[in-house]
Each structure stands twice: as C-alpha cells, then as structure tokens.
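Handout for the seminar on molecular recognition.
Each group receives one record of this type.
Step one: identify the two inputs.
Step two: read the structure output and locate the region that could contact manganese (II) ion.
Step three: write two sentences on what you found, then compare them with the reference statements printed after the record.
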Amino acid sequence: MKEAGYEVAVFPGDGTGPEVVREGLRVLAALAEGGPAPWRTTEYPGGGQYYLLTGREWEPEAEAAAHRADAILLGAVGWPGATLPNGDIAGRALVLGLRERLDLFANVRPCRLYRGVTHRISGRYREVWSPEQVDLVIVRENTEGLYTPARGRLKRGGETEVVIDTRVITRKGAERVIRFAFELARQRPRGAPEDGVKRVTCIDKANVLEGCRFFREVFEEVGKEYPEVEREYAHVDAFTQWLVRNPEHYNVAVSTNLMGDIVTDLASVLQGGMGFAAGGNIGASHAMFEPVHGSAPKYAGKNQVNPFATFFAVEQMLRWLGSTHQDLRLVHQADRLERALAEVLAHGGSGTYDQGGTATTSETGDRVAEAVRRVAR
Ligand code: IPM
Ligand code: MN
C-alpha cells in the first residue's frame, strides 16, 4: 500500500481518445469525492496529431512520466496522414513502444456481456448471446510474435523485391504469458459459464507453425503445475467459429500476439462491440490500461462515442493497482465502479449511437458519475 497515493500518467492521445479519457477522469474524480484521492492523475499530450504539430510523438518528460508512473491510462493513438519516416504510425511510441520498453508482456482483455447491452450483427440489433453466456478473458502475448521488430524490405535498384516479418516465440515470452493465464484462471471466482470449469484454452495454429507447436509445449509444461485448471487446445481458425457459437464454453484463453489481436476484436462483438472492450497491458512492475478501440477520426470532436470501454479500463486499472500493492481501498473502488457501470447498463435508457441510442459521450459520463455517487463506498 502506498500511503502517498498512486501516480497515474494519462495519455489521451488522438481523435476520440481525449473525449473518452475526459469522462474516465470525471468518473475517477467522482469515486474520490468525500475523501483524499488515493491517486493523482497527470495528463500528457502525445500521438499522431501531436506529431503533425511538433514533429515529435511526445516529449521526453511524458516518456519519463510513463516510466515512473504506478499505472498508465491511454486513450487511443493514430491519425490519418500521421506517419513516421520509416512508415510506422506516429504515436506508436505510446502503444507498441511502451509495451516493448516497459515489458508489458500480458495483454489482458476481459470479454463480458452486461445486462442491458445490445449487440449488433449484420447491422441489426439482436439478442444472440445472453449475459449468462459471455464471461471470458483473452490473454494475448504482447511483446513478441509477429510484432517483434525484426522485419524489413529488400530493395534492388529502388524497387521492393522481398519483404519479411519474422515471428519470434521465445521460451521466456511464452512461459510468462501462459503462467499469467493459468494464475488468472485459478484466481477468478467462477469458471466457464457453461459448466463452471476453470479452463485455459491455448489458441494457436500448431498444425502448421513451429512457433505454435513450441507455444503448446510450454503451455503443457506450465499447465501441469495447475492441476485444478483444465487445459484445452484450439486452432485459431476453428476457435473463431466456436467462440461465436458457444461463448459459454470459454473461461480464460491465451494466444500469441497477432492471433490475440485478431480474436479479441472478434470477441468484442460478443460484449456489445468495441465500445465496451477494455484491455490491460501488464508487466512485472508496470501496467497500461486502454479502451481497445482506436482513435475513430470520423467521430472525433463530436461527443458521440461510447466511453464505457474507458470506464472498464479504469476499473481494471484500479483493480490491478489494488491487488499489486495489496491495497484494499483500490479494490473496493474497482468493485464500486463495476457496480455503478452494471447499474447504468442494466437500467437501459438511451445508450450512445453504437447501442442504437442518442446519448452523448459526456451524458454517458454524467450518468456513470451519478451512479458512482449513489453506490455506497
Ligand atoms: C490493439 C491495436 C494495436 C495493436 C495497434 C494500434 C498497434 O490494434 O491494441 O489491439 O495492433 O496491438
Ligand atoms: Mn487490435
């Protein structure tokens, strides 16, 4: 427990990032009302738009703050036309850069459908999945795999002839993320919705890729240390259909970097869309929390996007801070926020446009801040 409070470095980023982060900070402030806040938030500019203005993705001071902070809250980065000279997106330093440099090896993306949330399939609002069916967490390896910066282009006479992206799977990288998934399965109060079984599913393509065969071997080794958790394997292609058909079967799933990136976007449909998907990038001593959605340039400045993903990111951040520092104050605040979020969603009323409603980003923030005040400390 940190008596002096926790330092949270906040990077609103590009596009709609600042709009959802603003609501996230208001909700944090509502949680802290009536007592000294056990956290301090400091905002820093950075990202693609900042790069277009200044020629820098962020300032050295912002980077230092990210390294120093107890936790990081990120909005979104990426802006049309904001590209670094080497072709990478400007703002990369804030996402992929921090994942690499702070060694945030586990990307933890809970996927839960809350009562009152509608989901959209082929443009229509339907109730395909019920809240009882969807409660899983996908853990994505976050520092290597196909994202390893070992890539390049061979040009001859100015013409590109060969391009290579190298997929790297290391024992250390596989082992720690797989262990994270098993620990999570062990700690979660409930198993899979279908049968209550604590289960970790290894998502891979071991029928083709050597790296995936190795990932499975390590999964088997590590998993044996957790006899109370069931081990299961799924080829990534088949997994996509099973996930959609039978989400209640899944509890915790673990995968390599790019496969995890793809299946978590698919999974977000089960929980009501990207407007609800949050993720924590977690390392041994640092962590960064973010809505999974991007900067949505089309909606920037319109006060229309759904801030719930950011609220869930804030909840995840408080829970992580609380458990890492064994500080029950923060765990209670996370529980309180979750109750407030569930209450607002269950109550229904007009959601944001992605829910077929007309509520604005800031009205949604108002409703959640009010609910936080109602829910007892
Ligand atoms: C995500 C995003 C990032 C990724 C992008 C913005 C680099 O899609 O967090 O899932 O590919 O990891
Ligand atoms: Mn993604």
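Reference statements: The pocket of 3-isopropylmalic acid (ligand 1) is lined by residues 95-96, 261, 292 (CB under 6 Å). The chain has eleven helices and 14 strands.
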